[in-house]
Design a protein that fits this description.
This protein is mainly α. Helix content is about 50%, strand content about 0%. Helix 2 packs across helix 3 (about 55-65).
Length: about 80
């Protein structure tokens, strides 16, 4: 484990990462789902409302639910 941490800390690309996930490990939304999320964000901002990170996370979870992504498989994390 320490060798992995040391190797990640040695490169600028991964030195500031808080978590490491191998490619293909994390559940991501489809392009259409991400566009739905973007449309929501633009509409909220157009109305002059600030968007907190928790609001964005909750909306992402709702979009994932509508796309039948299991709640345990998608955390809508910032990383």
């Amino acid at each position: 484990m320490w060798s992995m941490i040391d190797s990640m800390a040695a490169t600028a690309k991964t030195a500031k990462m808080k978590r490491y996930r191998a490619l293909g490990f994390a559940i991501i939304l489809t392009n259409d789902a991400e566009l739905d999320l973007l449309d929501w964000l633009v509409a909220v901002r157009r109305n002059g409302m600030p968007v907190a990170a928790t609001m964005l996370q909750q909306e992402a979870l709702e979009v994932a639910r509508m796309c039948d992504v299991p709640p345990a498989a998608f955390g809508a994390s910032a990383t």
